[in-house]
Amino acid sequence: MIHLDYIDREWTTATTPMVCMHCENPTCAQACPADAIKKGEDGVVRSALKPRCVACSNCVLACPFGVPKVQIEMELMMKCDMCYDRTSVGLRPMCATVCPSQALLYVTAEEARRLRRGNPVNTFRFGNEEVRTMVYLYLPQGQESLEVEADVVNDIWRSSE
Ligand code: SF4
Ligand code: SF4
What we know:
Blueprint: E1 3-6, E2 15-18, H1 27-31, H2 58-62, E3 69-71, E4 76-78, H3 84-87, H4 94-98, H5 109-115, E5 119-126, E6 129-139, E7 146-147, H6 150-159
Parallel strand pairs: 5-7
Antiparallel strand pairs: 1-2, 3-4, 5-6
Bound molecules: iron/sulfur cluster (2 copies).
One iron/sulfur cluster (SF4) binds next to helix 1.
């Protein structure tokens, strides 16, 4: 349920994995007219509940990271839910389990700081909007947030089409 985004399709075929960031205030859930997206007490934002989802794509438009995808044939939005079936019984998410270079880690932010030179960051700015997430990205030391520019967001949208 994760997908790969092109970094800069004009210049390179390189891609980067995009997981759900599990936002503190998930706009996907706020925009859902059917109350189909639930956030658990553990902070994990679940995929859409099948009996409720009406496949309207509001969540697709609302997510600043371009994560939810509507499966038209199933009439259902599906997205990364941090492998809830695994993590709820103490296993790591599948992506972190199979990643050979450990680019994806399933550890606490404190452990991440200890394991890598980069700075794990969970604060993102989209214009005037600040989004805080449960998932962290590694940024260079000293950088405490990431400002996402409009053309980067447009690239994400284009590459996920
Ligand atoms: S990253 Fe997108 S899909 Fe995931 S919780 Fe945030 S708004 Fe929802
Ligand atoms: S596609 Fe489904 S989960 Fe997304 S906003 Fe519409 S009803 Fe809610």
